[in-house]
Amino acid sequence: MTTTTPLLVAVDGSSAASAAIRYAAQEAKRLETGLQLVHVVPNYLPISPMMPLSPSDLDAPAMKILRRAAKQARTLLGSEKVTATLLHGPRVATLVDLADDVPLVVIGSQQRPAFERLVTGSTLVGLASRAKSPVVGVPDHWMPGEPHHRIVVGIRSAAEAPDLVRRALETGEALGASVVLLHAWELPSEYDDLLVTHGDREEWNARAHRDIDSVLAVVQAAHPDVQVEVRVVHGQPARVLQVASRDADLLLLSRRRRAFPVGHLGGTGRALLHHAACPVEIVAPVAEPLETPQPGSRAGREPVEVN
């Protein structure tokens, strides 16, 4: 596969940004394209009045960050394949605008405590939640090495799976990797215990397996040489997928379809962006979902009164 549009890489001077550059350079070589490095100086600085600063005061350190990132990228890819741009504005909105027409957006995933992310926010999550192009979050420890030749795909529902499975098979074919379609489910504890006790877990697993197989049957014809495994696991989805990411080269997830034009990134996606062992690619929903009611949905159900 070849593309003339460079990949977009958001950099901030962190170790995670260095990992993102390493991953993006590897992908750029595979896709025979270049890299566009971007550092965005925020237009709002939440600091004390005793330390007054304006965004322009950050230009000098910002340029230092960008030059360091450009040097790393050019060492890996060549000077002619790398551009570096300094921008000012709201970080997430600026990057989302730039991501409209690029084949891939790459950004580092800094392993920070949950409370710190709650207080400071996360450019990674904001970008992955809103960008129209696929966004890859790269763990700060990621290094190129011997591949596992395995892509794991988190399947939330069969209705939302076709675009995600199609992209996984395309990527698997390009990388010579097998694809694992993994659906993990767990009900709230008071219901989950009852299901396990009454042996309904096997029936639920079999039904989910059939739903995924039906999607695969439509999509796989275009990629017959890609080895695919379907797994249905009873367990907390984020935990199951995090474990699966330990021996994968890439974890693929899709944003949920909601009223918003580009979908919504749920709790599982947010958790895995920060804690997966491998790079995580978030794919925006494209086509309208199939009209397939999910177990426990309100479709076709009447209220039940309990005396």
UniProtKB/TrEMBL annotation:
Name of this protein: Putative UspA domain protein
InterPro entries in alphabetical order:
Rossmann-like_a/b/a_fold, Universal_stress_UspA, UspA
Residue stretches making up the UspA domain: 6-138, 149-283
The record, for PANTHER family, names: STRESS RESPONSE PROTEIN NHAX, UNIVERSAL STRESS PROTEIN UP12
Family in the record: Belongs to the universal stress protein A family.
Source organism per entry reads metagenome
